[in-house]
Amino acid sequence: MDAAPRLSRADKRTLGLSSLGGALEFYDFVIYVFYAKLISELFFPSTLSPFWAMLNTYGIFAAGYFFRPLGGVVMAHFGDLIGRKRLFSLSILLMALPTLMIGLMPTFESIGYAAPILLLLMRMMQGIAIGGEIPAAWTFVSEHVPERRIGIANGVLTAGLSLGILLGALMSLFISLNFSEPEIKDWAWRIPFILGGVFGFVALYLRSYLKETPVFKAMQAKKELAKELPVKQVLANHKTATVIGMLFTWFLTGCVVVLILAMPNLLVGAFGFERSDAFKMQSAAIVMQMIGCILAGLLADRFGAGKVMLFGALLVALIAGIFYNSLGHVAPSTVFMLYMLLGLSSGTVGMVSYSMVKMFPAQIRFSGISFSYNVAYAIAGGITLPLVQWLSLYSNIGALYYIWTICLVTVLTTFVYRAKFEK
């Protein structure tokens, strides 16, 4: 096999700016998770019952997920017709502005019911933005780099999204260590949002230096852009690719939500870990997942995304089985090492985007990726935690059975992907 072409300086610059912007935008989206309960207390009436308070907390949080498909499909439509770069910049503007506004908004005590309404609108805007950002980033970078370097490019880019989660976790830890509970409730909770908004505008400025993708410019010159509604073409002519993309996205969702975001609650609530230790383990696992994304990209450029997805899903299933069954039975240091291996293996999710880039033709690529990813993430993101919590009623390691299920689905889906798209 010939050596894959190296990334040029321009390719590295594009990849670096795109990854940095993606990390900052994902930080803006997930920072709400770390302060959802506190924000609910500040932006809703204090007279609410615990049930309604919890419903409001998760309802506002879920609004960001439910509006992802709308933002993704609409922005992808124009991205396939007028260019990737413009929508790539718009998505970060739509994220930075509401994040900054959440940090500056008055609470229920000051403006009454206008506070939760404004909060909901800001969260909806964030959902629309993230729905366009991630497919835009995958499409934009993949159309800039040489074809045989798409794997490593997507691995680095997806690692950047994981970096956004890590930044959110570290910022939350920094605030908790440096401010008292009254200070946090009074004003310090605003700091992560204000900084997130400022960082977003910095990322928007940096993206002004990016150029339109060569693939889109070539289609524009040859008048090969989509002649009808791009998403209509996706649903009419690319059903198999769409379903495969959605099932792969389910795997990605499970690895992020169950293995990363929800893990501290499991370790603390069911197995007695100190919360600070659980968050340190989570941060280390995110770093390992980032490394795994990059390794998966290198392997995919050499062996293909199908083989990497197949091997990765089997590895996640194996290590998850060992990890969950070790909880409560081995030393914390052993749990830590197993969790690091689980984080590393979950880096396979970095190749979900690679597979979708390969499945959809350039004319409708943005729309195809966006529809598959956002619809699946909205559904899976909405049902994953309630389903895992239900399974946990029957077993402390109920999450394992969910992970095994999505790994099995991913293995079966990969066989179809390889047969149809990696001949």
TrEMBL record:
Pfam families: MFS_1 (PF07690). It comes from the Bacteria. Its main location: membrane. Residues 14-422 form the Major facilitator superfamily (MFS) profile domain. Keywords: Cell membrane, Membrane, Symport, Transmembrane, Transmembrane helix, Transport. GO terms for cellular component: plasma membrane. The keyword Cell division does not apply. The chain crosses the membrane at residues 15-35, 47-67, 87-105, 111-131, 152-175, 187-206, 241-263, 283-301, 308-324, 336-354, 375-393, 399-417. It is a multi-pass membrane protein. It is found in: Cell membrane. PANTHER family: ALPHA-KETOGLUTARATE PERMEASE, MFS TRANSPORTER. This is MFS transporter. It comes from Acinetobacter wanghuae. The lineage of its organism: Bacteria, Pseudomonadati, Pseudomonadota, Gammaproteobacteria, Moraxellales.
